[in-house]
Design brief:
The structure holds 2 protein chains of 2 kinds. By secondary structure, chain A is mainly alpha-helical. Chain A is about 35% helix and about 5% strand. Chain B is about 45% helix and about 20% strand. Chain B is an alpha+beta fold. The radius of gyration of chain B is 16 Å and the shape is globular. The chains are: A mainly alpha, B alpha+beta.
Chain lengths: ~70, ~160
């Protein structure tokens, strides 16, 4: 979980105020609403397997938005 | 954060490689909870289970009340700014709001769904892949949400 914010963008106090102004105050627990996942290597392995199983292909007739 | 684009298997392999290049061992990828709906839209029932198994591996941002309200705000702000946004879907706005709320960069193959100036590309890669014996290209961008500009235009919508 700690790593998901490793690429969080820099922000100053004004940015924080702007974010709170638009989206409301941040939750007390910064991890609220975040469900931990697995490691990147595990994800990439799963993506490769999913690709081989062709699960990303959606019938175009049934996917007007794609 | 990685939006779920309906990528076919060729693209998915290429994208996996590129993400590996961008990423280091300390980086996690995350998706929005709305990606479950996007990925299973139009999918055969047999594939839905496999899609869920795959997406369960990602760190997931729940679609909270705060994010849903944020998606509505973005819709209004896009219109107010007349950003040239050409009708991004509600799912795209939920993903955009998630990036704003958590202050995280967003990876996409569809930058038109995340309009400038609210999002700015900070890195991009032109990916080549072969499909049906032809070379194809796709541009993947890393976008930065600009909260200062969003706040400015949010003020104008009141």
């Amino acid at each position: 979980m700690k790593n998901i914010f490793s690429r969080q963008l820099e922000e100053n106090e004004e940015d924080k105020k702007a974010r709170a102004n638009v989206f409301g105050p941040a939750p007390a627990n910064p991890n609220e609403g975040i469900r931990p996942g697995q490691s990147l290597s595990e994800i990439l392995t799963a993506m490769k397997k999913a690709s081989e199983e062709n699960i990303f292909r959606v019938p175009r007739d049934n996917a007007p938005n794609y | 954060m990685l939006p779920s684009t309906c990528l076919d298997q060729y693209l998915q392999i290429v994208l996996s490689k590129q993400i590996s290049i961008w990423a280091d061992s300390k980086l996690e990828l995350a998706i929005s909870g709305v990606s479950y709906a996007e990925m299973t839209d139009g999918a055969y029932k047999l594939k839905v289970k496999k899609v869920n198994e795959l997406l369960d591996k990602y760190t997931q941002f729940e679609v909270s009340q705060r994010i849903l309200q944020g998606a509505g705000i973005l819709s209004n702000v896009y219109k107010a700014q007349n950003s040239g946004e050409t009708g991004s879907s509600l799912a795209d706005k939920i993903i955009a709001a998630t990036a704003f709320v958590y202050n995280l960069p967003l990876i996409t193959a569809n930058i038109q769904d995340f309009p400038h100036p609210f999002f700015t590309s900070v890195a991009s890669a032109n990916l080549k892949f072969r499909k049906k014996n032809k070379d194809n290209y796709i541009v993947i961008d890393v976008l930065k949400p600009n909260i200062t500009i969003l706040n400015y235009w949010f003020g104008k919508t009141k």
